[in-house]
Structure of D-lactate dehydrogenase (cytochrome):
Amino acid sequence: MPITHFLNELRNHLPEERIITDEFRRFTYSTDASFYRMLPQAIVRANSEQDIVVVLQLAGRHQVPITFRAAGTSLSGQAVTDSVLVLLTDEWQGVSVDPLGETVHVQPGVIGGRVNQALLPYGRKIGPDPASINACKIGGIVANNASGMCCGTKHNSYHTLQAMRLILPDGTVLDTRDEASVTNFRASHEALLSGLTELRESLLSRPELCEKVRHKYRLKNTTGYGMNALLDFEDPIDILTHLVVGSEGTLGFISEVSLQTVDELPQRASAMVGFSDLNDCALAVARLRAAPVDAVELLDMRAIQSVSHLPGLPAFARQLPDAGGLLLIDVRATNPDTLAASLAEVDRVLGESPVADSTGFTTDSSLIEEYWHLRKGTFPAVGANRPAGTTVIIEDVAFPIERLAEGVERLQALFDEFGYREAIIFGHALEGNLHFVFTQSFDEPAEVQRYDEFMASVSDLVALEFGGSLKAEHGTGRNMAPFVKLEWGESIYELMTRIKRLIDPNGLLNPGVILNDDEKAHLKHLKPMPVADPVIDRCIECGFCEDVCPSQNYSLTPRQRIAAFREIQRRKDQQVNVGPDWDQAFQTMGIDTCAATGLCELKCPVGINTGELVLKLRSRQNYRYRRLSALMARHFAAVASWVRFGLMLSAGVQRLFGANRLEQASLRIRQWSGQRTPVWLSSTPRRSNPIYARNERIDPNARDTVVYWSSCASQSMGPALNEDRRPIPDAVRSVLEKARLNVVYPQPTRGLCCGQPFRSKGQNQEADLMMNEVLDALWEVSSAGRYPVLADASPCSLQVREEAEKRGIHLYDSSAFIDRFLLSRLEFEPEPLPVAVHVTCSTQKQGLERSLLRVLDKVAPNWTRPEGIYCCGFAGDKGFTQPELNASALKSLAGQVKDCRYGISTSRTCEIGLSRHSGLTYYSLFEVVDRCSKAANTLEG
């Protein structure tokens, strides 16, 4: 078979671990955001351009189709295949900004939001602004010609493209920034370039076709190939690179792209404007096109109702009639005076429309954020509320702006005709670009038929009757490829097929995508969405969660865990043998290596914490250890004493043999044991003395009194042998003494644990028991919630915070406590040198980032937060039992913090892994506050 010969030869060039052929990983790694499922025969993880060149050359030799994928957030089936799928490793992270910030050079594996972070100091950003910009990658953004809410048709990838480094299907590399590369390419590919010139001349010879192309690109349009390249450029090199934009990996591989950037205007105002009739709403959009607005988003009443539970929605919006709608208007400017003038003009234009009600424009950034969070929440709201087992589908079309109102009305009529009562409409109204979202089951032939007839009707309506575009910004993909000819007509479709044959003569790059003569291709390979577990049934497999997952480059991401679990449940429900390979793979990659910190919940548009599923599965597996867990929970003070004793012994061994030698020896033992034994890291701490404090009666009228609850980790773990830090409780008490606060302690001071070590193993009953013991003690010592409680470990405060609030206990994590109670009681001599900060998962989940950063600005204003590290992966004890997870999550840490003096965190266990993989000592926040502060001369407030 061709694929066998291809893989055998590929193994001569790539290491075996980057050629994936087992079914479990082929299934999980190929999951994307679309509603299609195809199982690749092999997956190749490409590290470099040379890898891509080899893959393409061997694919040509053996006639093996190739599909490229970046983040897999595309919605239309562009990144699935039943042949060979090429994934990018994390080696494609290059970002280079020109001195003035006007151009940025980016490799395809960089997430769009990170490019904007690199451009922020220049007051610039990239033009494309898709809703998925914090998850999708530049390779996908350019390959799909993605746009977004503020991008319009002016600032998409096509119009901001400055240069490209491209690998053609034959393996040739073309770098349009390199004159020698261009010259060599003109000589070696003369026939290709001549063919592109002939195609341009063929189009120019038919004025009616030229006018059709111009009309189509006055709208947002990503249907088919970018035919405007044949009109906009004369040089065939320019034509080629601009055809590649939006070609969805069917013409070549983009290994680097240079984009012109756009201004990130600092002044901003937004308003929500209501209309009693959606037709009036759409007509107002046409008037606003001539006004100084940057974005206008339209929401129909069903879309409004879908987000009515979210904060920020004005009261009048809920009272609009069923036929009504909202406009969310955004205006930006370089300075306040220009902004004021623009707002006055927009208000004047709105005065010409029958506005039902309005919030008026606000410059309050938090309120603006709420408004736009509402708009972005429409799609996930439908996904979250869909019936279990159904798929959420989002389509995007564009109408000529003068016919937008009529188009909206006709779309709503089609929803009613085909029974999509839950369907909503929203979109980038300034461009006539509308998204519509509906839920669909593909379990029954009748449902597939309904979908087919609906899409045919939509296509006729948009493309033929209104002369619009069937794909405004989501790319053609598989689901719209059968309709490209309908939209463009026979003549232009023939030009598109000539483009494909000219550049990819063997048709091996992503076949079936963009051009597909199978009229029913959009109904094949539909992804099943079986009911699996209430925790994850709402997942729409968008992939937004993947970037923050610490195991993303080690085992599985949250999306992949969910996809695998769904497939296992589907096979069991259909009485299909899952097989030991799948069981073992899911156990190792899905359950054992999950940090279960739940950071994915913050990025998930429907709020799924995949860690909850993993903990549920661990609970089912660990029932046999319940008696041991119960015994340990009842005698946790003794367990903590044994931990301290073990740390004391290990410190003695470290002194004899050296910390690094002990770590290497434990790594060898782990290797010999088949990864069954834990690792003793060189940064493992020595024992710490627990807190001993007598039980005091507190005067209910006492002032300046706080409760200090020190975690079991803080009381057990002191500094490592090679660290100059001090035990965390000592630092906390020193700071509280400087602040002139009276400190009391819950009793007993030792043996109180929040239960997190048990909960992470799925032992919820024991965890709840221990948490309640802590809460009972805090309730008593705080005089029934009168005094604030300080928790010195972020993971512990997260565990008990919700239940503490229910009991009226005011519990504060370390950063929040310092921010609220100590900044005014202390004077600071800030650390002048750069320091690294790690914002723990538990800090993020409690929404305390701003508090932490305010404290850092006082004690270490020259702080830096490493990019791309959201969770350290230490996860309690996983840093010892799954050290590879911690190492993978912190792979890029050392390089980013090499110029820092030390690091700061708010979790003692996280600090072990951070210190180990950074080469720095990571201190607790209280230690840094202690070393940089002194008592204030006078107390404020």
Summary: The first strand starts at residue 19 and ends at 20.
